[in-house]
Amino acid sequence: MSTTTDRETSLDGLRHRIDELDSQLHALLMERAQVGAGIAAARLASGAESVVFQPDREADLMRHLVERHEGVLPLATVEHLWRELISASLRLQGDFQLHLDGSADLLGMLDLARFHFGFSCELVPGADAADVVGSVAASDGDLGLIALQDRADLPWWRGLSTDGAEVIARLPFLVLDERPADMPALVISRSVAETVKRDTLVFDARWTGVLPGNLMNEGLEVVSFHRSASGVDALLAVSAHLSEDEIFKACADAGAEPDVLRLVGGYSAPIDVEGDADDDFDAAASEGLTE
Ligand SMILES: O=C(O)C(=O)C[C@]1(C(=O)O)C=C[C@@H](O)C=C1
Question: What does UniProt give as the signal peptide span (predicted)?
Answer without folding.
Answer: none
